[in-house]
């Protein structure tokens, strides 16, 4: 009886094996073969099991190569985005439908970590025999995290070595902008491509004997840099539509306009197109100051180019005006129509104040003073500013009428009218 109890006790009391790496508890009476823990079987790729803590490198490479293959084979791809997926599924995570490219979210962090680690290893190697893998890794990382400047710098080095074409990088940046249209690093990279690859420092001008007669229509052919700049205007409009208050896109558009002003051929057509495009934009985005600020710069550029002779006259751009004063007066009327049609938008009043300062400079600082008639009686005497120039007096009377109309409103327009009235008194001295 005592022996039976002792044997039963040995069968049920667990003993921790010292040689077990996992510290599992085993019964002393179990056989030697049962003491060995079988290794866990990794889940098959694409199964519905929980995700493994680390994806195999071969699987990551297949995903990166699949993404690179679709981008290189379809030059019409125009959008990329991360597609949410609750877990692994039995299919490839790379999706391409009607020139739209997507990557399922379940594999993103694993593949990004794989590509990032290999990029850091490749940077330690001074000479890279095959740049293909590095191009694929940086391409994937930029599609996921375009804010990292290290990846862009690596591609710049490959561009300078001739291992990468500018058209390939332009296509990549457009895909990145489709997902993150407000990414400043992408616009900076496109500027770098223009200055260093597409249009490097121009050679000195040819002697007069070799000059081309532009008036007879036999000018030089359009250079790749000019085609790039015209295309950048479309990219800026596209990204501005995709994200509200996209000031990075409008700043890039300012840079494009500055580059175009240095290339006089075709400047009138570009200014006319931009003038019309800005007015269409402002009519539908009355609260965005970025587009209004660009319009201010465009107007100043047109006046400067006309004064320097790059434009024959302002009539080439706006047929209804011929002088800077007429141009800004037309802008004041356009702005007033928007204020009355869409009340309660502060950006329109801020833009109007800039226009008033330009008109003031044109009338009072450049034109000689012109008194209209003898001063009125003291009881009806107006401010001294209004008696100096009749045109400026008409502008101020129009502003007073606008303020009075705004003060009659019971909405936020009344507050904006009060602020505008204070600005007129503090800045213009009205």
Please tell me about this protein's structure:
The protein contains 16 helices and five strands. The chain is mainly α. Strand 4 and strand 5 (100-104) form a beta hairpin. Helix 3 (57-73) packs across helix 5 (132-144), helix 13 (324-341) runs antiparallel to helix 14 and helix 15 (390-407) runs antiparallel to helix 16 (412-426).
Question: How many H/I helices?
Answer: 16
Q: What structural class results from the helix and strand content?
A: mainly alpha
Low-confidence stretches are: 1-53, 203-221, 367-387
Helix content: 55-70%
As a whole number of angstroms, the C-alpha radius of gyration is 34 Å
Strand order of the largest sheet: 3-5-4
Main β-sheet description: 3 strands, mixed
The arrangement of helices and strands along the chain is: HEEHHEEEHHHHHHHHHHHHH
Question: What's this entry about, in short?
Answer:
The protein is mainly alpha-helical and 430 residues long.
Topology of this structure?
Blueprint: H1 2-12, E1 14-16, E2 25-27, H2 32-35, H3 57-73, E3 79-83, E4 94-97, E5 100-104, H4 108-124, H5 132-144, H6 149-161, H7 166-179, H8 184-198, H9 224-242, H10 247-261, H11 267-284, H12 289-308, H13 324-341, H14 346-366, H15 390-407, H16 412-426
Parallel strand pairs: 3-5
Antiparallel strand pairs: 1-2, 4-5
Q: Could you list some keywords that capture this structure?
A:
two-stranded antiparallel sheet; 430 residues; mainly alpha; elongated; 16 helices
């Amino acid at each position: 009886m005592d022996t039976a109890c002792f044997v039963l006790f040995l069968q049920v009391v667990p003993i921790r094996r010292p040689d077990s790496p996992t510290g599992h508890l085993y019964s002393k009476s179990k056989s030697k073969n049962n003491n060995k823990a079988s290794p866990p079987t990794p889940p098959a790729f694409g199964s519905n099991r929980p995700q493994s803590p680390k994806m195999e490198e071969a699987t990551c490479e297949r995903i990166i190569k699949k993404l690179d293959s679709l981008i290189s084979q379809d030059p019409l791809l125009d959008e990329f985005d991360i597609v949410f997926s609750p877990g692994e599924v039995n299919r490839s995570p790379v999706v391409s439908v009607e020139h739209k490219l997507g990557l399922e979210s379940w594999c993103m962090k694993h593949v990004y970590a794989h590509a990032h680690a290999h990029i850091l290893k490749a940077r330690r190697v001074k000479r890279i025999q095959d740049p293909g893998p590095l191009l694929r890794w940086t391409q994937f990382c930029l599609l996921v995290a375009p804010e990292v400047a290290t990846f862009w710098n690596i591609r710049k080095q490959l561009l300078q070595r001739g291992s990468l074409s500018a058209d390939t990088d332009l296509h990549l940046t457009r895909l990145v902008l489709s997902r993150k249209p407000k990414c400043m690093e992408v616009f900076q990279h496109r500027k770098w491509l223009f200055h260093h690859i597409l249009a490097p420092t121009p050679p000195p001008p040819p002697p007069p004997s070799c000059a081309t007669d532009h008036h007879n229509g036999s000018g030089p052919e359009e250079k790749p840099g000019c085609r790039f700049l015209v295309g950048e205007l479309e990219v800026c409009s596209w990204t501005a539509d995709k994200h509200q208050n996209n000031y990075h896109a409008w700043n890039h558009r300012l840079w494009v306009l500055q580059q175009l002003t240095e290339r006089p051929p075709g400047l009138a057509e570009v200014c006319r197109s931009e003038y019309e495009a800005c007015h269409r934009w402002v009519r539908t985005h009355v609260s965005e100051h970025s587009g209004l600020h660009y319009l201010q710069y465009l107007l100043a550029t047109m006046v400067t180019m006309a004064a320097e002779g790059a434009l024959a006259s302002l009539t080439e751009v706006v047929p209804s005006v011929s002088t800077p004063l007429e141009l800004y007066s037309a802008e004041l009327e356009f702005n007033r129509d928007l204020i009355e049609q869409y009340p309660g938008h502060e950006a329109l009043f801020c833009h109007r104040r800039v226009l008033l300062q330009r008109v003031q400079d044109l009338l009072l600082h450049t034109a000689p003073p012109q008194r209209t008639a003898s001063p009125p009686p003291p009881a009806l005497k107006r401010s001294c500013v209004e008696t100096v120039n009749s045109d400026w007096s008409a502008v101020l009377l129009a502003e007073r009428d606008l303020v009075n109309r705004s003060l009659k409103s019971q909405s936020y327009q009344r507050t904006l009218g009060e602020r505008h009235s204070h600005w007129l008194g503090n800045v213009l001295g009205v």
